[in-house]
Design a protein that fits this description.
By secondary structure, this protein is mainly beta. It is built from two helices and 29 strands. The chain has a domain of about 120 residues.
């Protein structure tokens, strides 16, 4: 990716104008993680087979999908894909447009050999190249695509870093230490207020926001942590973290009165609200417009807001399944992986044209005992084009 002449040193410039999606009317999206599993668990089962009909018998890969859809393996951990060895424990992922082609990036949630790998796809959906965009990091689980088409990958370890990566493989990945060294759990961009929200994977984790000095450039800025008055009373305020890159005094201990949550995760921003789920079963909503924080145990009440006008939301469940969730609060099975009982579905993302859904079985059939069991798939078919069942 070529750098803008006005970009500051270390900044990753926005992609050229040609790097745009080729389809702009996609009526579905995909997500995985704790927040989405909580919402899916609260949904009502569909009265019939859902919008795409019943699942067929599992194919040669042990995957069941409705009629009209096909599944193919695009990468296996420890094996070469388009000339590059695919990483272990594939986790968070996203797709980035590049003219009539696109790129799928995938985190690696493993120690020391983590990082991010990218695969470039031709217009017909075939892989035509792969490359590493981040190496030498650990437990990269959390990820977030920025509005300027870079990928933020965070380490889920104490003192972990956020790296800003170039999906197009031109610029080197850059550590964003001003965003905080902590056990990163999830990230979400708020383009309206020009901030990035972060949650912390600790039993008593905090909720942060990073305010860059210049939107589109995460080189420098201010990290703030959410603070409440004693006993939870009073207004919500944000306070600056004095030393976000510090390791001697942990980031989470630098601001007295920082609000604590029970292992916050699953950060998502839409329509002025940032939501995240906690291990005690609550879904928290931070209203960034009115500076209010509310919690609910009724995740089903959030379905219309989360699905929104996308029409359909494809969500990874607790088992090896992907369900389709609609704004009316119903869910139906779309995909089931058999024989991967000790794995998890990760990295859901649609190609820009909406014709291909990517996901991984993080540990594969071998489970956690194998470091190279992960498998990444592409599901292709008539998404959003079938009448409701």
């Amino acid at each position: 990716m070529s750098r803008s002449s006005s970009a500051r040193p270390g900044a990753l410039a926005a992609p050229p104008g040609g790097r745009r999606a080729t389809a702009s009317a996609i009526r579905h999206t995909a997500a995985d993680g704790p927040l989405w599993r909580a919402v899916l668990a609260a949904a009502r089962p569909h009265s019939r087979n859902g919008p795409y009909g019943p699942l067929r018998a599992p194919d040669e890969n042990g995957i069941a999908v409705p009629e009209g859809f096909t599944v193919r393996v695009i990468a296996r951990s420890g094996y070469k894909t388009a000339g590059v060895v695919w990483h272990s424990a594939p986790d968070g992922g996203a797709c980035f447009p590049d003219g009539d082609e696109w790129i799928y990036v995938s985190n690696s949630e493993t120690s020391l050999l983590g990082g991010v790998t990218a695969i470039r796809f031709a217009p017909d959906g075939t892989a035509r190249g792969a490359y590493r965009i981040l190496s030498g990091t650990s437990f990269n689980g959390v990820g977030c695509a920025t509005p300027w088409h870079t990928w933020l990958s965070g380490e889920a370890i104490p003192g972990g870093r956020i790296f800003e990566c170039d999906p197009y493989g031109t610029a080197a990945a850059m550590p964003r230490l001003s965003m905080g060294r902590l056990t990163h759990s999830s990230l979400a961009c708020d383009p309206d207020r020009r901030v990035v929200y972060l949650t912390e994977d600790e039993p008593d984790g905090c909720f942060y926001r990073f305010v860059p000095d210049e939107w589109g450039d995460l080189t420098s800025g201010t990290l703030e942590v959410l603070v409440t008055a004693p006993a939870g009373a009073g207004p919500i305020v944000w306070r600056r973290v004095p030393n976000p890159a510090g390791l001697i005094e942990p980031v989470r201990s630098q601001v007295p009165g920082a609000r604590r949550f029970e292992r916050p995760a699953g950060c998502h921003f839409a329509d002025g609200v940032c939501r995240f789920v906690t291990a005690d079963g609550l879904v928290w909503s931070y209203d960034a417009v009115h500076h209010r924080l509310e919690a609910t145990s009724d995740a089903a009440s959030l379905i219309p807001a989360l699905v929104g006008d996308t029409g359909e939301l494809f969500v990874a469940g607790d088992g090896m399944t992907i369900d389709v969730l609609t704004a009316d609060g119903t869910a139906a099975p779309f995909l089931r992986v058999t024989g991967h009982d000790s794995s998890a579905i990760t990295g859901l993302a649609f190609s820009p044209d909406g014709r291909h859904l990517y996901f991984s079985s993080q540990r594969g059939a071998a489970g956690p005992a194998s470091g190279t069991g992960g498998v990444t798939y592409a599901v292709s078919g008539p998404f959003g084009r079938i009448g409701r069942g």
